[in-house]
Specification:
Layout lengths: L15 H28 L4 H10 L3 H30 L5 H14 L4 H16 L3 H30 L10 H20 L15 H5 L2 H28 L6 H15 L7 H10 L4 H25 L1 H9 L10
Helix pairs in contact: 1-2, 1-11, 3-4, 3-6, 3-9, 3-12, 4-5, 4-12, 5-6, 5-13, 6-7, 6-9, 6-10, 9-10, 10-11, 11-12
């Protein structure tokens, strides 16, 4: 069996500190948030829980659901489109409708860790479509690589439009963008063989997608992803207003990529992303934290509910007989 035909390796036992660290980060984030909320509640002469309940009672939940349900469904369709496009480029021909149970069922695992969810997609495709394990793992790496540049690109656009209104720390965004652009050029030159032509690292199957990728394909993924972010800007802006927080569409264009970076950190309940909202609204951390808690957790749990709709089909395809590659021709 060659490297290209090898299935994904059996999962290794995760070191204890890797299992514990996300929970420690989560506890640290929520301890910090509780102290901020408690301080604000004390200034208002209320108990912390009573104060938070007052924040939640002031929200028009039906209007909020009218925003979040269509957005979550739209995100699922766009996210699946990106996976479909990359798999068809670098691995095998798959119908878009056949990607939906793969992407949807992975959301269930993504409740705790988005990257593990992508690993599940790799195993799924390896099992269901006979895609070589390392090569489909490479496609998942390609997705994560593009996500970084897609978020950074839109953060840079947001900073260019509203940099003067963003917190001072956002001034690092242009510098990060320049550094990332240089790294991207070097990355392309390396996989073309212009840099380090004798390197054997690029020949590894885990880098299969990057060897195959053309420069314009990175741009296509950015364009395919962008409608989801632009929809998020509109939805999050309107949702923030429902929570009594001032929000501007262009400001959110700068905020959201950073928030979504925080959501990608492997912590339960997206603790880092929730904490970042309190930094963006330091004068009202209780409302900002309540917003972040509800917003991010509804999103991941609603997506998991979408995954449950496909779970029966996913189980049948994952644990049934493997398909022949000719089935997609």
């Amino acid at each position: 069996m060659t490297d290209s035909d090898a299935p994904l390796p059996a999962a290794r036992k995760t070191p204890w500190w890797q299992r514990v660290l996300p929970w420690l980060v989560t506890l640290g984030c929520f301890a910090y948030l509780y102290s901020r909320i408690e301080s604000q509640a004390a200034r208002e002469g209320q108990h912390t829980i009573e104060f938070l309940l007052g924040v939640f009672q002031g929200v028009s939940w039906w209007r909020w659901l009218a925003l979040m349900v269509p957005y979550s469904a739209f995100f699922f369709l766009v996210d699946s489109l990106v996976v479909w496009r990359i798999i068809n480029w670098f691995n095998t021909r798959v119908r878009y409708t056949d990607i939906l149970p793969i992407r949807g069922s992975a959301y269930i695992i993504s409740i705790l860790n988005e990257q593990v969810g992508k690993g599940v997609m790799a195993i799924y495709l390896n099992r269901r479509d006979n895609v070589p394990g390392w090569q489909v793992g490479s496609s998942m790496l390609f997705i994560m690589f593009c996500e970084f540049y897609y978020l950074l690109a839109w953060a840079t656009v947001g900073y260019a439009l509203r940099g003067d209104a963003l917190p001072e720390q956002f001034g690092l965004i242009p510098w990060v963008c320049v550094g990332a652009a240089i790294c991207f050029v070097l990355w392309l030159l390396y996989f073309r063989g212009t840099i380090a032509p004798g390197s054997r690292l690029r020949d590894r199957q885990i880098l299969h997608a990057f060897r195959q990728a053309k420069w314009w394909q990175y741009g296509v993924i950015l364009l395919l992803r962008s409608p989801a972010l632009l929809a998020a800007v509109a939805v999050y802006t309107l949702a923030l207003r429902l929570f009594g927080l001032e929000a501007n569409f262009l400001d959110l264009l700068g905020y959201l990529p950073l928030i979504f970076f925080g959501a990608a950190v492997p912590t339960p309940m997206r603790a880092v992303a929730i904490t970042l909202w309190s930094f963006l609204y330091p004068e009202n951390p209780a409302r900002a934290s309540a917003f972040g808690l509800v917003q991010h957790n509804f999103f991941i749990f609603f997506n998991a509910a979408i995954g449950l709709m496909f779970l029966r089909r996913a189980n049948r395809e994952l644990f049934g007989s493997k398909r022949s590659p000719a089935a997609h021709d």
